[in-house]
Structure formats: C-alpha cells, structure tokens
Specification:
The protein has a domain of about 130 residues: 2-Layer Sandwich (Pseudouridine synthase), CATH 3.30.2340.10. About 30% of the residues lie in helices and about 20% in strands. The radius of gyration is 20 Å and the shape is globular. About 25% of the residues are buried.
Length: about 270
C-alpha cells in the first residue's frame, strides 16, 4: 500500500520500545521482523490522524541513582502529584533549538517549509517563557489576578473575576492557570495576568506585526500551567529508579524526568 495511507495518532521516540496503534486500508500482515510484534487487529471506520491520541503511558528506568534516593522519593512523589510545570520539552524546538530559526522566519513573513509547524514553535516559546517567569516567582500553584483558568473536570475555560474564590480553586486543583499560545482565538487575560503575558512577548521580541503574522498560521489557544501525571508509580529497583506514569497528549515525559533527576542541562527553558 502507499505509505501515505497508513495513519497514526502521534510520533514515538525512535529509540524507545513502544506500543502504538496504526490504521491502514487493508488487513495487516505480520512483517516477520524480529524487531516488530503484531499485537492486535481491530476494524475501525476512520483513519488515525495526528492529534487523535488521548494519552501516552510511560515506563522509564533511570539507572544508578543517588544512594539517598530512597529518602528523597516520598517528597518527589508528593511534588509530582501536586503538579509540575507543563513546559514544552526540548525536543519540541528541534536539535539544539534549530526549529526556532523557522519560528523566527515565519514571524518576519519569510517562507518556510511548514509554516503551521513553525508557528506552533513560536507559540511554544511564548508559553515556556511565560511559565518560566511564573515558576521563578513561586506562582505555579497560585492565582494571578486576571488569569484564564481551565477546569480539570470539563476542560472549560474562563477568566478569573473573583480572585479570592478562584485562588482557592487553584490551590485545590479544581482549576489550573492556562498560559498563552498566541493567536486570534486565544481568550485574553486581564489585569496583572495580561501584563505578565505581555512581558513574555516583549522578552522574545514579538511585536504586533509579528503576532499578526503568527495569527495567519496559528488560531491561538491556551495550555495549562501544571502537569499532573496520572497512574503515577515511583519505585526503586536495586540501584535504579523505575517511573511509571500517564501523560495527556502534548505533554512531555522529559519534563517529568527533569523534575526527578535535575539534569545538568536545564530542560525547563529550552527556548533561551
């Protein structure tokens, strides 16, 4: 069959051991390749497309951890369950951040191979900058007046107009602050929250003309500030740490691992 007829909901790390559904217009045949196993076959009326993925389940082994890991694990477990910064991981920006070059070109009205993808990189840079500033100010788990908030249960978004009541809902994990992914359809923040978002745009040099250009290829949305891994299980296996968790589509296992191992290369601000 034509390779273009094969559908998938998301890309996998080419170095990982992965399980993934693929769609194709005919009955699959076991490829007879020892690197691959055909686990299940089911019929479905539609082709899988990028973005259809609901979540990704990870089982990751970190080898030769610090001898004091057993003492630190309860605090790390509690920290992850409270929610960690939902940064875009470094892979979002390409090897050594090279995809940021396309993002800069699209904002200057220059031609690039995939303008929609380049626009999404520009959005991700804005979000990471906004979130990094919030983390540095100790406000990841706190309301900023005028925040746009997203309900965890339903996904609905609204702008905060009752700081006292909404601050309690943020602390309880009922709602999460949602950061900027600029575009015409992005719900605007107000008050102090709007000023903080503008500072993130200014820091990256995104002026009104750049934002108009960005809006040609990116409709705009919001992304929650906190990432809460589901089905979390952290355990020691000899000298290794085994971390199991499920993340929603669009979130990064590298970010969760960064909170666990604190690598020398900071994963939290790959756009800088």
């Amino acid at each position: 069959m034509d390779p273009r007829d094969v559908g998938y909901a998301g890309r996998k790390d080419k170095h990982a051991v992965t399980t993934q559904w693929l769609s194709m217009p005919r009955e699959p045949v076991d490829p007879g390749d020892e690197r691959l196993s055909l686990l299940a076959v089911a019929r479905h009326p539609h082709k899988l497309r990028t973005g259809h993925v609901r979540a990704n389940r990870f089982v990751i082994r970190v080898r030769d951890v610090d001898p004091a890991a057993a003492e630190r694990l309860p605090a790390l477990d509690e920290r992850l369950r409270a929610g960690v910064p939902n940064y875009f991981g470094p892979q979002r920006f390409g090897h050594e951040g090279r995809s940021l070059g396309d993002a800069a070109r699209i904002l200057r009205n220059a031609r690039v191979r995939d303008p929609r993808f380049a626009a999404s990189i520009a959005q991700a840079a804005v979000f990471n900058r906004w979130l990094g500033d919030r983390v540095m100010d100790g406000r990841l788990h706190a309301l900023v007046p005028g925040d746009v908030l997203r309900k965890r249960e339903t996904g609905g978004m609204f702008r905060s107009d009752d700081a006292e009541a909404d601050a309690a809902r943020v602390r309880a994990g009922e709602v999460d602050p949602a950061g900027p992914m600029p575009g015409a359809k992005m719900m605007p923040a107000s008050d102090e929250a709007a000023a903080r978002e503008q500072r993130a745009l200014d820091a990256l040099g995104y002026d009104e003309q750049a934002l108009r250009q960005l809006a040609r290829f990116a409709p705009g949305t919001r992304r929650v500030a906190r990432l809460v891994p589901a089905d979390l299980d952290l355990r020691l296996d000899g000298a290794d740490l085994v971390a199991e968790f499920t993340l929603p589509s669009g979130s990064y296992a590298t970010v969760v691992l960064g909170e666990l191992v604190h690598p020398a290369a900071d994963l939290r601000a790959p756009f800088e």
